[in-house]
Amino acid sequence: MHLFCTLTALLCLLPLLVLCAEDYYKLLGISKDAGDRQIKKAYRTLSKKYHPDKNPDDETAHQKFVEIAEAYDVLSDPEVRKIYDQYGHEGVKQHQQGGQRGGHHGHDPFDLFSRFFGGGGHFGRGQRKGQNMELRINVSLKDFYMGATHEFKVEKQQICEACEGSGSEDGQRDTCGKCHGQGMVIQKHMLAPGIFQQMQMQCDMCGGRGSTVKHKCKVCGGQRVKRAEESFELHVEKGMPKGARVTYENEGDESPDWEAGDLVVHIFEKDPELGKEDKDRTDGTFFRRKDQNLFWREVLSLREAWMGGWTRNLTHLDGHIVQLSRPRGSVVQPGTVEIVADEGMPVWRHDTDSGAPEYGALHVEYVVVLPDAMEKKMEGEFWEVWEKWRRKNGVDLLADSGRPIPGPPGKGHDEL
Predict the structure, then answer these.
(1) pLDDT of residue 118
(2) pLDDT score recorded for residue 287
(3) Is the torsion defined by CA of 145, 150, 155, 160 positive or negative?
(4) How, if at all, do strands 195-202 and 173-175 pair?
(5) DSSP 8-state class, residue 86
(6) How open is the CA angle 337-343-346, to the nearest 5 degrees?
(7) Which is it for strands 337-340 and 362-369: parallel, antiparallel or unpaired?
């Protein structure tokens, strides 16, 4: 009985032990050969997703936020990562207890978060928020039709990781000699002879911090921030409207003094161009779009418009065929518009995955091209056929037009 109770207790504790020892790579969703850039990108994405400010009263999300910070803290340090890869969690724990890790161990997860986004490690808690960054990206009509994922790069201001946004190489600071640690200075302005105005202003020497860096960071030169290029993924959803906005929260310019603004991407359609590969050489490349409908202009010869008996295959954006045809004896008037149902753009339903996709219509306008000239024999035969048909049916083009019949020459005049 005692043995049974012991086994039961161990089985109950097993999930907790597994949770505590969750693989850091799996936690961040990266492979074991991931580079620093991938590790950083994974942390940035997940830390925002599970931040307690965005998940209030969710203890699971808070715990996840802490674990993600711990995973990044270990994997971002080459020495500790090597120990972790070789000896696992226990090896890292012994290394930390031995005091060999230096100043990086024991980072508060919110402090770590503030290194990436500023604002004291929190979202919207009274901190000043930086300006949003606006970006325009043009994608093909095919991407709007089928959906696509693109990678793009943005150069922006980032908090210096070498000094963690302090601007100091070694953390040492001196009291500002201008404001004497107050961060503010008093300036006098003469308004008139003998009349002065006193104004309290932020100290321009220390930037209002009350102290100056003793040894400037070699990476950022004491500026606390640096310019760097960062990669992002843009997901274009099927049927997404032109001009749609995709917002990357807190991915704008960073600073230790404010919460980073958003990166806002506006998606537009670029001019059509014929694909270089056969699979991209579609008629659909030159469709025109309006909302959920597509438009195409099909050119017919006089014979095709008058006599019928033709078939055309349009290759759509995704390569499937849309067939247009008229049986022999069917006349197509110039400017006729044929509406082909369910061959337009996918109907965009944001955040909805239920049900089969719906599509707009394809509007086909027929343009008839007349010949520049006819051979004499062809002209004679055509005229003979026309006159025979006209007399048989009693057709008078002038009378049927509804316009006034002109009088004899020299009497009156035709109205223009």
Answers:
(1) 66
(2) 95
(3) positive
(4) unpaired
(5) H
(6) 130
(7) antiparallel
Pairing relationship of beta strands 293-301 and 362-369 according to DSSP bridges: parallel
The pLDDT value recorded for residue 242 is 92
More confident residue, 174 or 131: 131
Residue 34 backbone zone (phi > 0: left; psi -120 to 50: alpha; other: beta): beta
Residue 149 pairs in a beta bridge with 235
For the residues 111-139, what does the mean pLDDT come to?
A: 78
Quote the percentage of the chain above a pLDDT of 70.
Answer: 84
**How far are the Cα atoms of 159, 267, 285, 329, 333 from residue 337, in angstroms, in the given order?**
58, 30, 20, 19, 9
**Sequence ranges of the domains in the chain:** 18-107, 133-269, 278-388
Higher pLDDT, 276 or 139: 139
Q: With beta carbons less than 8 A apart as the criterion, state whether 210 and 176 touch.
A: yes
Residue 173: Cβ-neighbour burial (10 angstroms; 0-12, 13-18, 19+)? middle
275, 281, 284, 286 alpha-carbon torsion, rounded to 10°: 50
Residues 6+ apart with CB under 8 A from 247: 262, 263, 264, 265
Q: How confident is the model at residue 2 (pLDDT cuts 50, 70, 90)?
A: very low
**Over the chain, what is the mean pLDDT?**
83
Given 3.40.50.2300, 1.20.210.10, 3.30.70.380, 1.10.287.110, which CATH number is that of 18-107?
1.10.287.110
Asked whether the CA dihedral 22, 27, 29, 31 is positive or negative, the reply is: negative
Class of domain 278-388: mainly beta
Residue type, position 239, single letter: G
Fold (CATH) for 133-269: HSP40/DNAj peptide-binding domain (2.60.260)
Rounded Cα gap, residues 244 and 267, in angstroms: 5
Query: Please, is 192 exposed, middle or buried when counting C-beta atoms within 10 Å of its C-beta (0-12, 13-18, 19+)?
Result: exposed
What mean pLDDT do residues 176-200 have?
79
User: What are 70-81's pLDDT values in tens digits?
Assistant: 998 899 888 999
